[in-house]
Write a structure and sequence with these properties.
Helix content: 40-55%
Binding site for Zn(2+): 251, 254, 353, 412
Order of helices and strands: EHHHHEEEHEHEHEHEEHEHHEHEHEHEHH
Distance between the termini: 83 Å
Number of strands: 14
CATH architecture of the largest domain: 3-Layer(aba) Sandwich
InterPro entries: Ald_DH/histidinol_DH (IPR016161), Histidinol_DH_CS (IPR001692), Histidinol_DH_monofunct (IPR022695), Hstdl_DH (IPR012131)
Catalytic activity: L-histidinol + 2 NAD(+) + H2O = L-histidine + 2 NADH + 3 H(+)
Radius of gyration: 26 Å
Keywords: Amino-acid biosynthesis, Histidine biosynthesis, Metal-binding, NAD, Oxidoreductase, Zinc
GO molecular function: histidinol dehydrogenase activity
Length: 425
């Protein structure tokens, strides 16, 4: 089922769905309707797409209490411990405002402030993701965001997945709405009678959510337009084939378009992993999804050396990279492009997905070449501070005038020249 290919025959290109014209037209229609009609449009589209007639969009306190009753204590405890780890990791990313003073009296600096209000999209559909609440809400809280509004599609019973609600409850996120899809993105962007507009929208969703986020970018900020999940495992002969296969399948079960790739210079490992993937696939509850992913986007790439393997890795720029080699620290310096890097046999990708602390919202489809995991900086904005002294203005004013006139901006030049004429000695 999973292909074994030589490096020379392995293509790093992957076609990822970016939406059809019909899908984009649908999204534009939804955005316009919600902008003009507010709650009425959101409720109408929820009934049309989710088959749910909403009496009220906002989750009530009683619904939170019911969700808490449904969740096993050990799950709630795991959520709390994961939250502690994630908060500790992200707190180390926090930066402070700063000022520097020159002998001339000029002060320069940067004022760093949190965004005021952020919208968090938590997907539903084939699976519910409490971990998405943790990974998106905690960095915003660490940054100091005061208002977090969460939207998530209701299930067939009109309720939110209890694991998602309990996680929000544990984090103190009480503003939760039973709304998903492009209509949720529209509500967060434009605001409705019930939902106040936000400054930024974060969190993954289906193609309609992705297209909606792309359309509203500029009116609000967004984290990224995420594609299907992906993993690359770079492994040598010391790797356990069962571990490698299990980690590949951990991503394949996400989505039929997820990509799982093993890169190795050991043909024996390649064959052993192929057999393990077949064996483990047969036992997976989400077998159909994982099987389609492995068939269409999975591969075992056999290279001549680990150095050549690293070239393949850097071309792929994967969302998740596992270095399952004898001495992973010897290779980490050669990794140029990856969203998250997992070192050694015990750093299985789900450790990062759920518990260790680093964020699991990562760049996909090669965008790790130029972008980073979601982090505290994504919820901060910076303002420059300039307090220029008279001494520096007199010393540098003519240079500023020269630059302004070079650009043909005479009013700029005169704003400085006027001060030179009045203040000059």
């Amino acid at each position: 089922m999973i292909k074994i290919v030589d490096a020379a025959d392995f293509s790093t290109q992957r076609d990822v769905e970016t939406g059809t014209e019909a899908q984009r037209a649908t999204v534009l229609k939804i955005l316009k309707a919600v902008k003009t009609e507010g709650d009425a449009a959101v409720i109408r589209f929820t009934e049309q797409f989710d088959r749910i007639k909403l009496d009220t969009m906002k989750v009530t306190e009683e619904e939170f209490v019911q969700a808490v009753r449904q969740i096993r204590p050990e799950v709630r405890e795991a959520v709390r411990e994961a939250a502690t780890n994630i908060r500790d990791y992200h707190s180390r990313q926090m930066r402070q405002s700063w000022l520097t003073t020159k002998e001339s009296g000029t002060m320069l600096g940067q004022l760093i402030r949190p965004l005021a209000r952020v919208g968090l999209y938590v997907p539903g559909g084939t699976a519910a993701y409490p971990s998405s609440v943790l990974m998106n809400a905690i960095p915003a809280q660490v940054a100091g965001v005061e208002e977090i509004a969460m939207v998530t599609p209701p299930g067939k019973d009109g309720k939110i997945n209890p694991g998602v609600l309990v996680t929000a409850y544990e984090l103190g996120v009480k503003e939760v709405y039973k709304v998903g899809g492009a209509q949720a993105i529209a509500a967060l962007t434009y605001g409705t009678e019930t939902i106040k507009p936000v400054d930024k929208i974060v969190g993954p969703g289906n193609i309609y959510v992705a297209l909606a986020k792309r359309e509203v970018f500029g009116l609000v900020d967004i984290d990224m337009v995420a594609g299907p999940s992906e993993i690359v495992v770079l492994a040598d002969e010391t790797a356990n084939p069962a571990y490698v296969a299990a980690d590949l399948l951990s991503q394949a079960e996400h989505d039929t378009m997820a990509s799982a790739v093993l890169v190795t210079a050991c043909p024996q490992l390649a064959e052993a992993v192929r057999q393990e993937v077949e064996r483990q696939l047969a036992e997976l509850p989400r077998r159909e999804i994982a099987e389609a992913s492995i068939r269409d986007y999975g591969a075992i790439c056999v290279v001549e050396s680990l150095e050549q393997g690293l070239e393949v890795v850097n071309r792929l720029a994967p969302e998740h990279l596992e270095l399952m080699v004898k001495d992973p620290m010897a290779y980490i310096g050669k990794v140029r492009n990856a969203g998250a890097i997992f070192l050694g046999a015990y750093s299985s990708e789900p450790v990062g997905d759920y518990f260790a602390g680093p964020n699991h919202v990562l760049p996909t489809n090669g965008t790790a070449r130029f972008s980073s995991p979601l982090n505290v900086d994504d919820f901060l904005k910076k303002s420059s501070i300039i307090a220029y002294s008279r001494e520096d203005l007199l010393a540098n004013g003519r240079k500023i005038v020269a630059l302004a006139r070079q650009e043909g901006l005479e009013a700029h030049a005169r704003a400085i020249q006027m001060r030179l004429d009045n203040e000059g000695e």
